[in-house]
Structure of 7-carboxy-7-deazaguanine synthase:
Amino acid sequence: MQKSIQKLVNDGKMLPLMEEFYTIQGEGYHKGTAAYFVRIGGCDVGCHWCDVKESWNADLHPPTDTNVIVENALQYSDVIVVTGGEPLTWDMTMLTQGLKSKGAKTHIETSGAYPLTGEWDWICLSPKKVKLPKEEVYKKADELKCIVYNKSDFEFAERQADKVSDHCVLYLQPEWSVREKVIPLIVDYVMKNPKWKVSLQTHKYLNIP
């Protein structure tokens, strides 16, 4: 990548855009609602069960003018979900300023592994064992979504829940490839620990992006 373009990316004036699409939010607190998704490339957290591994290498996704991303998004919705990859790899300030200046609500889905940038109306924190969230992200998270792949993930989820604020909504979500095995475990756990809620990837059941 040219140095001049790399500087624009580093400053958040351009972002490695993997894809953008209008769909129904499938997970967590806002499931079932229409939203425009902006998927930013680049992630070094490297979850083995990630279902968007093609997002990891930012070099595969064209640096796109942030103003163009804003204009495209606002044609479809006033609820914009920024996801990845790991969007906080990059400076989200300019993107969120552009969206909010037009009256949009800004949501982010993040592992929290990098410092929080941008202005957000909703922060969905999905922490990963291999690279834990920054303390500032724990404190500002509106939603904690812990993925359950095996029984040890319940202990991890509880440790993460201890770090978020009282207003944060707590979710346990089955990892898709083992959902038949772990859904009964999650149901049982939530019934015994009702501070948690169950999150399902309903968009996969609906066969939509």
Summary: The mean pLDDT is 95. The helical segments are 3-10, 66-74, 93-101, 135-140, 152-161, 179-192, 202-206. The two ends are 30 Å apart (CA to CA). Residues 25 and 32 are 6 Å apart (CA to CA).
